[in-house]
Specification:
Layout: H1 26-37, E1 49-59, E2 75-85, E3 100-107, E4 113-119, H2 129-138, H3 150-159, H4 161-171, E5 184-185, E6 190-193, E7 199-208, H5 223-234, E8 237-245, E9 265-277, E10 298-300, H6 304-321, H7 332-336
Antiparallel strand pairs: 1-2, 1-9, 2-3, 3-4, 5-7, 6-7, 6-10, 7-8, 8-9
Length: 337
């Protein structure tokens, strides 16, 4: 519970009329993150601790069968990425159960961008922005224990059976040893349209090519990031981008519900990360991994979390852009000395 209590892919907000007017606004969600984690100038309100990354995406061309976006044509494009841990503490100690994130920006050959923020759990704990907000409140650490109040969390789960069900799915997929052997899921459904105008619902995941290793005991405050830095100093790391094509009855509006494993998948290509960098001006530190920055051929589904995430990403970006910057807690040079 503690490991996933803070997870989100950015947060949620007032948008599109599906929240009570005046109740959940982008500033209020950002304020709530600051209330739970404290204010840390210059850092993201969630997934504050991270490393920038660079690499490429080599498309197999197979994705073009369902999507006309140029990034799916056979060939190679530049990728800017960011590895992160959920939560609003930029100097938190790494822990095996803390949700890991991977944000990617694909620079298409036609100048269009595709941005996605993924995490290493197979479903999202909440189906609505209100549900996430309520869980964030319930999961605030209690002074002295550093953990959520079990009574408040029990009350929350009783009111949100969809979250209780999602937690069971998440627990069936225990975390791997680190970033390199983690599968990262897009979670939300999108709609892909091909050159002939046919549209299908799609979810995606980045599946690692590194062999899975059982998690080891934490060794140092930044051990997950340190292991990633050392691995990339020796070799590039690869993930297969797998597209899952939904059927008409599969839920596209509820990220807590997994699709059947029997659904058709497409190996769209390989994401290769060649290096990581301490967060600084000019790299992924200043990129907003807004899930609604989409190329022609990809559109949002009816999932209410998408517009919500986009709104609070923007609010978080605006706040940190106006604040003084502090050195990143994760320093690549320190590890490679």
């Amino acid at each position: 519970m503690a490991g996933i209590a803070a997870v989100d892919v950015g947060g949620f907000a007032y948008a599109g009329g599906w929240l009570r007017p005046g109740a959940l606004t982008p500033p209020r969600f950002a304020d709530r993150f600051e209330h739970v984690y404290g204010r840390h100038d210059g850092f993201r309100r969630n997934h504050a601790k991270g490393l920038s990354a660079v690499g490429t995406f080599t498309s197999t061309g197979a994705g073009a069968a369902i999507c006309r976006a140029a990034v799916f044509r056979a060939g190679k494009v530049t990728v800017i990425g960011r590895f992160s841990l959920s939560g609003g503490l930029p100097d938190q100690a790494d822990a095996p159960t803390t949700v890991r994130g991977l944000g990617l920006l694909f620079q298409g050959p036609d100048g269009q961008q595709w941005r996605t923020a993924m995490v290493n759990i197979p479903v999202f704990p909440d189906s609505t922005p209100q549900g996430f907000y309520d869980r964030l409140i319930a999961s605030k650490p209690v002074p002295g224990t550093g953990k959520a109040d079990p009574e408040k969390m029990a009350v929350f789960l009783d009111r949100h059976p969809e979250t209780a069900a999602a937690m069971k799915v998440i627990k069936q997929a225990p975390p791997s040893s680190g970033f390199a052997d983690s599968t990262f899921y897009g979670l939300n459904a999108f709609r892909f349209t091909n050159g002939a105008g046919a549209t299908v619902p799609v979810r995606w995941a980045a599946v690692p090519q590194e062999a899975a290793v059982a998690p080891a005991a934490p060794d140092g405050k930044d051990y997950l990031f340190d292991d990633l830095i050392r691995a990339l100093a020796q070799r590039a790391l690869n993930w297969r981008l797998v597209l899952t094509v939904g059927e008409p009855d599969d839920p596209t509006h509820d990220a807590t519900k997994p699709w059947p494993r029997s659904r058709r998948t497409i190996d769209a290509g390989t994401v290769t990360v060649t290096a990581v960098q301490t967060e600084a001006p000019g790299n992924a530190r200043d990129i907003n991994f807004d899930p609604l920055v989409l190329p022609d051929g990809i559109t949002a589904s009816d999932d209410p979390l998408l517009a919500a995430r986009s709104a609070v990403y923007a609010r978080s970006f605006t706040r940190r852009a106006e604040e003084p910057k502090t050195p990143s807690a994760v320093d690549v040079s320190r590890v490679l000395r």
